[in-house]
Structure formats: C-alpha cells, structure tokens
Amino acid sequence: MEKEKKITIFIIDDSFNNEENIIKLMRSSGLAAHTSRVEDDEDLIEALSKKTPDILLYSVGMELISVDETMQCIKDNASAPVPVIAVNRPKHEMDVVEAMRQGAGDVSAYSNPSHLELVIKREVEAFKCITLQHRLESSVRESERRCQGLLDSSRDAIAYIHEGMHIYSNQSYLELFGFDESGDLEGMPILDMVGVDDRNSFKTFRCGNKDRGAQQECKLELKLKNADGTEFRGEMEFSNASIDGEPCIQVIIRTQGKSKELEEQLAFMSQTDSVTGLYN
C-alpha cells in the first residue's frame, strides 16, 4: 500500500472553517495536511520557531498582518524560504499583480477549491525543486573547492588551457617552468612552454586530436622550455576538462626525473610489506 504523503501548511486566517476545508481538500488529493492556523505576526513567529512549513496560505483581509508583513516575518524568522499563496475570501479580494509584487507566488480563492489545490501543489513542488537545486549547487561548490585544493597541492605539474592559453596552473607547474605566480602565466600560450624544435610536432599533434574530437587522454613526449630558456624533456598528458562550466584542456606534465622517481617508488613497494615496511 502506498504511503500517504504529508504536507505542512501554515494558514493565516481567523476562521477555523477555512482550515478544516484545506485539510479536507488536501486529503481528497492524496495528501495528509498538518496545519497550523495563526492570526498575527506573533503567532507566526512562534510557529516558525517550531518548524518550517511547505507552504503558507494568507487569507486576504486579515487586519492584524498584511502580505507584506507576512513576507518580512518569514524572511526574518524562517530557517528556509517558504512559498506564500494569497487566498481571496468573500468581500476580501486582492489583485494577483498586487499580491505578487508584495511577494506572494500567486492568488487563489477558497470559493474555487480545484484551482487552490492545483496552485498549492504547484508551488510546493516548485520550491522542492528550488531547494534541491540549491543543495546540488552547494554540493558542486564544495566539490570544486576540494578539487581546487587537490590541484593546488598536487606534486604533478597541472595546468588548464583554453583556446591555447593558460587559465590556471598549480604550484608544481609554476616551479617546473620557473614562474613565481599563476598570474604570470595567465594568457600565455601553451606553445611558449614547448622547445623550439618540437613546436611543429606539438601543433600537428594538437590539430590531429581536435580533428578527431578525441575524448580520451592523449600523451606526447617532447622538449619543454622554462622561463630562462632552458630546455628539458617531458611528457605532456592532455584530457578534456571544464572550469566554471567552460570547456578546456587539462595538461599534466611529467618529467623524466619524476618518472624515474615513480618507478623507484613502485619497485620499492613491490619488494616490501605494505604494513611493516620490511622487505619481502
């Protein structure tokens, strides 16, 4: 049996009847409504201190609190954004434009329950999507922060290239090529880091990969050139990446010294116990 879905609704109203009608309306649409009825700002602040509703219904014509004051109260006291619907009552009606300008998401009426039901469901689902989006964006920012930390502290020389120009380089990359700050490399062509004799082969290699639209990692061994003009051999590894949603190329450079050091580490690990450190 499918579990009944719940919805928490705050109702600003001076009538018990409207609250009961909302509970019945939600039940008929398959939702178990948990309602709290408030009549003024003090009641609303107290209710918000206990929980945050899925939606708030403001009954138009309340003398002790306006739509404007309701929105401000939510802003100051709710732990999360709350969608607000202005609901017209007999002899108390509000224009939809006026209500929305004051912060309400829409206007409905107790006399039109079918429309009110649809509006409530729409606003609740919309805010759920917005909340999920905010969580995902926060998660992405945290992941990017962690990735940035890993890049900055990596012993591998790593740079990001967009349209042939440097847009990011980590400390290992700067040290490898003899630069002090990442800003010194921003806007500098990656071609400038390649030895003069290997530049044509580098251009041919990169053009070939663009024509094939390769997504996999590609490697090229060639001569590289640091800031003082000294050339050294190294291996460039290219892979597709993105920064701030913009496509770019990640470049990892490994020199022969680094490769030799890695080989020695692997050889040592193969000959020793990983727990004790003793030779096998």
Key descriptive features of the protein:
single chain; 280 residues; five-stranded parallel β-sheet; five-stranded antiparallel β-sheet; 8 helices; 42% helix
Mean pLDDT: 87
Order of helices and strands: EHEHEHEHEHEEHHEEEH
Q: Structural class of the secondary elements?
A: alpha/beta
* SS elements, strand count: 10
Strands ordered across the widest β-sheet:
2-1-3-4-5
- Form type: rod-shaped
Main sheet specs? 5 strands, parallel
CA-to-CA gap between the ends?
60 Å
The number of helical segments is 8
Query: Helical percent range?
Result: 40-55%
How would you describe what is shown here?
The chain has eight helices and ten strands. The strands form two sheets. A five-stranded parallel beta sheet has the order 2-1-3-4-5, sandwiched between helices. Strands 7-6-10-9-8 form a five-stranded antiparallel beta sheet. The chain has helices spanning 16-28, 41-50, 67-77, 96-101, 113-153, 171-177, 199-212, 256-271; strands at 5-12, 31-38, 55-59, 84-88, 106-109, 157-162, 165-169, 218-225, 231-243, 246-255. With 280 residues, it is α/β, with parallel strands linked by helices.
Can I get a quick summary?
By secondary structure, the protein is α/β, with parallel strands linked by helices. It has eight helices and ten strands.
